[in-house]
Write a structure and sequence with these properties.
262 residues; mainly alpha; 6 helices
Length: 262
């Protein structure tokens, strides 16, 4: 009985020792964990303190930056308002100046428009006259090109005779009424021109002189003689008389062409 009890007590004692060893190991582990946790807590606390310090510094810097931005924004807003007000006033003044310039421009246009319109009309009339002259010259050229060499010689003789007859009747008319020294001198010039054309026929030929005599009769004749001096000179009676004096079918065709010219 005592031996069994002793064995039992011995077993319990070993078990108690084992538990004591296990308890010591647990206590060491707990102490190590507490030390580690305390160390970590100290490091974390230091880190949090540093982060808090940085955050406070950032907050102060951000507050200053925001305040500076707000001051700049208010200054810019004020400047924009002042600029807008100034531009509005300037625009009103510019609008007034623009209206004045528009009114002055319209007045200037009203002043120069009639003269410009008249000048434009004169230019158009001049262009039309030039075109008409070109048309007349082309029609004359086409008529003269249709005449043969014989027709041109006959036409030259007829034209010069009619011009001389007109000059003679102009002299008679100027003797009956005062036409002025200017008309007399112009008739003398016409006589000289006709005499010169007679000489040119022999020298240059009929092709050149035909155009020259036509120009005299068409352009110079009505200017050299007074209107009454031409009454009855170049009408149908004169043409018929000239036709009787120059018989022949070809000469009759020439006179028809001359009639169209005159």
């Amino acid at each position: 009985m005592s031996a069994e009890y002793a064995l039992r007590m011995e077993a319990l004692e070993r078990h108690r020792e084992e538990l004591c060893v296990y308890q010591g190991a647990i206590e060491k582990r707990i102490a190590l964990r507490e030390a580690t946790a305390a160390e970590f807590s100290a490091v974390a606390l230091q880190s949090y303190k540093q982060r808090l310090k940085t955050l406070r510094a950032s907050t102060i810097s951000a507050r200053k930056r925001n305040e500076e931005f707000m001051r700049s924004l208010r200054a810019t807003q004020k400047q924009v308002q002042e600029t807008s007000f100034r531009l509005k006033n300037d625009q009103s003044a510019n609008n007034a100046l623009l209206e004045q310039e528009k009114a002055r421009y319209h007045r200037k246009i009203e002043q120069i428009y009639p003269a410009w319109q008249e000048q434009l009309q004169r230019l158009r009339v001049q262009v039309l006259r030039e075109l008409e002259d070109k048309k007349h010259a082309m029609s004359h050229k086409s008529l003269t090109e249709k005449l043969s060499q014989v027709d041109r010689v006959k036409a030259l003789g007829a034209l010069i005779g009619r011009v001389e007859e007109g000059a003679a009747e102009g002299d008679a008319f100027s003797g009956s009424c005062d036409t002025g020294s200017s008309s007399d001198s112009k008739r003398e010039l016409l006589k000289m021109a006709v005499s010169g054309r007679k000489a040119q026929i022999a020298f240059f030929g009929s092709d050149v002189c035909f155009e020259l005599v036509l120009d005299i009769l068409r352009d110079i004749g009505p200017v050299l003689f007074p209107p009454k001096a031409f009454e009855g000179i170049m009408n149908d009676q004169k043409i018929r008389k000239l036709h009787q004096q120059n018989k022949g079918k070809e000469l009759g065709n020439v006179l028809e062409i001359l009639k169209a010219w005159l």
